[in-house]
Amino acid sequence: MVELSAGEILRFHQAPSNIIVTSPCVFQVVSPIQSLPNQATDAYRCMVSDGERMSLAVIPGKLSAMVADETITRFTILKINKCSVSKKERQGSSPMLFILIQDAEILGTVDEKIGNPVKLTEQDDVGADSGAPQSSVAGPAAAESPISRPAYQPQYQQPPAQQQPQQSRFGGAQSSFMNRVDDIKPKYSGMGGSAPVHTGAPPSVHPISDLNPYHNKWTIRARVTQKTSIKSWNKPTSQGRLFSVNLLDDSGEIRATTFTQQVDKLFPLLETGKVYYISNAQVRMAKQQFSNVNNQYELTFDDNTTVELCLEQANVPQEHYNFIPLASLEKFEKNQVVDVLCVLRDAGEVAEITSRTDDRKMIKRELTIVDKSGFQVRASLWGTEAETFNVPVEHVVAFKGMRVGDFGGRTLSLPSVGSMTVNPDIPEAHALRGWYDAEGRHMSFQSFRGAGGGAGGAGGSGGGIGSAENFEAQLKTMAQVGAENIGARDTPEFFNLKGTIAFIRANNLAYPSCPGENCSKKVTEDLSSGQWRCEKCERSWPAPDYRYIFSFNVSDDTGQNWLQCFNEVGEVLLGATANEMIELQRVNEVAFGQKLADATFKEYKFRCKAKSETFNEVTRVRISATNAYPIDYVAETARLSRLIDSYN
């Protein structure tokens, strides 16, 4: 049986708050896992145990997917490679310990709780915050510890400082930045002024990448890389103003927004390009539709926020890009944010279009961009950016915060929070310029075609899954999928299949989703009111919008495999919306079964994504159909004829 890290939760409890643990700890989930309410993205809470004591743990972000598909359940054993630990003071009782799990591996799931763990009590407070946990203390004191030590040596970190002031045994400053700020010192100057300059020893700074809603005592040292203008909103329920800034350090980026009362105070203080010490802001789940940075959290400045100018600006990056090749856009979901470095191949004229949702008139300009991956993509500019765009063709452009679209294959769009830099002075741009002058100018580029899938030749006809040549180059048989271990690697793999649907699983054909715009989260029914609640949108609806998510079996002459599909593919296969199928199942079970039967024994071309997943120590490959196309038998006959000719 796996051995838990006995005594580790007690050591967490007796350590200072707001620490980062970077060496492995083995804990067990010992309670049912519950979703956190009012979160923009999925996050869960549960109790974890080291075999002796229990603590509240939070499972956010990327790990939440393993909770959703029940890879992590009650009694799952986790090897936590990185976590942050904080404590919340409570009147009349011991502080509540929070463990935010940032990186973990699943060691397995057992049938029962290991040991007899108990909750932390006031007696466990002895020694708390007095220094390092006993497992990190060297010398005789450690040997006399009544707590048994695990075989590994846990490493605890306080956020690193530029220059270390007086250190505690735990590795961090004994007093926080806020404790060193004079009580009468203003947090920020008035309107029209500038940010006060930080004086004294540099504070202990926290990396942006480790900010989360469960730590509230931190200071970041970050550069303002982008600042919006002041914007106003006026709704029936509220009105006000806001502006946002992007903050960057060497660990990552985060977006910060200031609302209404603080706008006039903070807007003149924060200048693009300068570095600041910032503390006492609220960390919340990010609303990705308003952000152009890849961070699941964002900051909100309020009355308690402290902003101080940092005169030492070395070692803080000027700008941060995560460039992706255009050819890889197929791996990104709709509305994801990406950075691209490209050459402008063509720029269209400004056009006025009407929004289908609210009949608003919008200004749009379409660009054609290319890069070294050999693909060209249509990119859209909106509003002022579209009207004022005057970049000559064949210039290098860096786009930050482009939003991925799937209309006609894969497209890009620059939202108002995005940014564009022409001919940036960075090594990647110089390399792209040299490649285009030498090769790219004379190339024929591929493009994405169809309803969200394969690549076709630029200007060619691909029927949504690419040209005939491209489809055939990526076509696999069922036997090849197994023999080549497709999907067994660390990254998803894409390929094409041609096969016949043999069976469709009718159980859990669809799930109730939020009807809100740009939201497809699962909703739950409130039996008392009959309303359906979406925790992401924080709204209730009279009825859900059902979306497909089901498995079906596909066969060819070499074998068979199970594929999973989502809403768009489901509508192609069944010829009806999920709402229509759920209603048909409710009123006429026989007709529902016949509808499923009618969808079987039909042949399709599939664009597939294969990815390896581990559940209960068993690794298997899950194949998803990202697109499905009925067979064009004229084109298929021509393809087979060419294939026969190739053998002569």
Structural summary, described in words:
The protein is α+β, with helices and mostly antiparallel strands. Helices cover 15% and strands 35% of the residues. Strands 10, 11, 12, 13, 14, 15, 16 and 17 form an eight-stranded mixed β-sheet that branches. β19 (351-354) and β20 form a beta hairpin. α11 packs across α12. It is globular, with a radius of gyration of 28 Å. Mean pLDDT is 79; it is low at 129-154, 159-192 and 450-464.
List keywords for this structure.
648 residues; alpha+beta; 13 helices; globular; five-stranded mixed beta barrel; 35% strand
Produce the secondary structure layout.
Elements: H1 8-14, E1 19-21, E2 25-29, E3 34-35, E4 44-49, E5 53-59, H2 64-68, E6 76-88, E7 96-109, E8 118-119, H3 140-143, E9 156-157, H4 177-180, E10 219-227, E11 231-234, E12 239-249, E13 252-259, H5 263-266, E14 275-279, E15 282-285, E16 297-301, E17 306-309, E18 337-347, E19 351-354, E20 361-370, E21 375-382, H6 383-388, E22 396-405, E23 411-413, E24 419-422, H7 427-438, E25 446-448, E26 455-457, H8 468-473, H9 478-483, E27 493-504, E28 510-513, E29 524-525, E30 532-534, E31 539-541, E32 545-556, E33 559-566, H10 567-574, H11 578-587, H12 589-599, E34 603-615, E35 618-630, H13 633-646
Parallel strand pairs: 5-7, 5-8, 13-16, 21-23, 21-25, 33-35
Antiparallel strand pairs: 1-6, 1-9, 2-4, 2-6, 3-4, 4-5, 6-7, 10-12, 10-14, 11-12, 12-13, 14-17, 15-16, 18-20, 18-22, 19-20, 20-21, 22-23, 22-24, 25-26, 27-32, 27-34, 28-32, 29-30, 30-31, 32-33, 34-35
